Structures are given as structure tokens and as C-alpha cells.
Amino acid sequence: MPPSLWTVRVGRGGHRCSPRSLRRPEAARHPPGGCDLPIASHLRDESSVVRHSIGPPHEHLARCSSRRRKSRASKGAIGLSHSHAIERPASSPRPSPMRGETVLRILTVCTGNICRSPLASTVLASRLTDADVQVESAGIRARDGIPMTEEAIDLAAERGVDRSFALAHRARFLTTAHLRDVDLVVAMTREHRRAVVELDPARLRMTFTARELVRILQDVGEPDLAAVAAAGDESPDPPRARFAAMVAALRARRGLVPSPAEPEEDDVIDPFGRSVATYRKSAAQLDPALAAVERLVRHAAPTPREVNA
Fold first, then answer.
1. In what side-by-side order are the strands of the sheet with 207-209?
2. pLDDT higher for 296 or 258?
């Protein structure tokens, strides 16, 4: 029997399935092979359509059972608030490095991980090649394996990123594995910051939006920042301790620095699907944050050249 909509009744005898007709216009029916379900408007960002198929009862029940198993196995991961279960390719975050191999870990986060967060991570990684830092990115609603947009690649190249490095980027769906042992999370918006904290509440103390980070740090002079970082000098792991001391100081300043006139001023606008001018505006909002993160890293983990100077 061709794919159709099935009614499932559960009773003492188990599942009974029977097809039922749809009392909707023909255009609203499920075509053979499935249908495209648009994501709710408040969730539409860098992903717009989810594929969902409905088949005969034995296939449908098998899929439901499989989805329930996968849901139990993936508790803690952020997904779409949608009435249908959505199967995602298994995310494959890079293995967390052993401490000593990489001193600091920085994660940038946006929605689809194809515009803002990879632009931030590739630029930072390119600027910090002489420091012992690992910079990665992920998205709270990313589809694994999607490349950066051409506009974002162009913006990265303009900021000194090797084009082949940007072309190699593939989107990753944010999971708790990406937050393990991270030293700083730079979220593109307040929504992304909230999603990170909901996924791992312990990351609240080290998660900032990009523009919030700039706002908090802008009035801190170099001598003051160096003095704060010096608190970690006696630690067995000075670079991490210095970085953690600065992040803690920034967190303490959250309630002391005036909030923006409009809450949206702490967000980097989403350029996906919009004009090149919007991409450039988004990148311009992000640039000061990249300079701020680099400043923190330089105070935490000076290069050998700086140490010997």
C-alpha cells in the first residue's frame, strides 16, 4: 500500500493501525514519499525546512520506537521545539584535547553554524596561530555537515583567513560534548547564550554574547587587566588560571556596567538569507568582540617571543 496517513489505536490487544482519509484540501495532503514541513516562524533562522515522511503502519511504528530510543540516548542536546520527532545525523565533535596539548578552548555559538559563529572561530583561529588555543564553533539548531555560506567565507578571507580553511568548515549541532572543558563561550545573541546555559548550567559563568563581552571589557585598561590575570600566576597551570581570573572579573562586572538602551544591542544580527550589506553589518558588529577575545588570550598565554622580550 502506498504511503498514507494512519490512525494508531492502542488497546489491550496492542497496536491496531488503519488508514483514514484526510478531510483537507488535496494540496494539504501528504504526497507520496513525504512532505516538507516548514519550521515555526519563531524558530526559522538558518534552517527553514524539515523533511518528514509517513509510511505504512509497521514502518511508522518502527520509526517511532527508534526515535524514542534516540531521544532517551540524547538527553541534554538542544533540539527544535517541534511537534514531530526529527532525526539528526550523529554529531561528531572533535575529541577534547588532553590538557597540556591545548591550553585554552574557546567556543563560538550561533544558530545554524554557517555564518556568524564560523566566521568568528576561523578569524580567531587564524589570528591566534602562535598561541596555544583551540577555537571551535557550533550551532543550537545546526544541520551537521553544512558548509559556510559564500558571503561568510568572503568576509573571513577579508579578515586574513585562508580561504581553504573557511571552505573546510562544516556545521555542527551543539551538544554537551562541545562544552566540555571549554574556557570561554562567545554566543552571537542572548538566545544562544540562554541555550548554552540550559544545555550546561555550569557554563553560565563563562558564557557571554559577543557584544556583551565588548561592553563589559571596554573600560578596563591594560594595566588593570594584567593585574587581574596575575592572580593565576602561582597556579600549576598559569595560562588557564590567568584566563579564568579575567573571565571571573568580567562576570563580576556584569551588574556594574550599564545595560544597553535596547536589549538587542547585545546581539549580533543574523545575516542568513539576507543582503551582502547585512552580512557586512553583522561582521562589523562581531569585529570588536574578536579583538576583545584576542586581548584576553594574549594576557593569559603570551607567546614565547613576548615572554623572552
1. 133-139, 104-110, 184-187, 207-209
2. 296
- For the 104-308 domain, the top CATH level (class) is alpha beta
pLDDT at 131: 92
Residue 254 DSSP one-character state: T
- Determine contact, residues 279/151, Cβ cutoff 8 Å: yes
pLDDT, position 273: 96
Q: What pLDDT is attached to residue 302? A: 63
The three-class DSSP label of residue 191 is helix
Domain boundaries, the chain: 6-70, 104-308
Written as nine digits, the cell of 78 is 538542544
Closest to 108 (Cα-Cα) out of 152, 76, 150: 152
Cα dihedral value 214, 270, 173, 211, nearest 10: 10
Distance CA 53, CA 63 (A): 10
Would you call 197 exposed, middle or buried from its count of C-beta atoms within 10 A (0-12, 13-18, 19+)?
Answer: middle
Q: Per-residue pLDDT tens for 201-212?
A: 999 999 999 999
What pLDDT, on a 0 to 100 scale, did the predictor assign at position 103?
81
Q: What are phi and psi of 122, to 5 degrees?
A: -70, -40
Mean pLDDT over 246-274 rounds to: 94
The answer for residues whose C-beta is within 8 angstroms of residue 243's C-beta and 6 or more apart is 104, 183, 184, 229, 232, 296, 297, 299, 300, 301
Question: Quick check: 113 pLDDT over 80?
Answer: yes
Who contacts 227 (Cβ-Cβ below 8 Å, separation ≥6)?
none
Q: Which residues pair with 99 in a beta bridge?
A: 102
- The model's pTM is 0.67
Q: Minimal CA–CA distance to 139: which of 77, 55, 232?
A: 77
Report the pLDDT value the prediction gives residue 255, as an integer from 0 to 100: 85
Instruction: Indicate the helix (H) or strand (E) that contains 238.
Output: helix 238-252
User: What's the residue count for the chain?
Assistant: 309
- The SS3 call for residue 189 is coil
Torsion sign, CA atoms 270, 272, 273, 278: positive
- Confirm if 227 and 245 have CB atoms less than 8 A apart: no
> What distance in Å separates the CA atoms of residue 117 and residue 253, rounded to the nearest whole number?
25
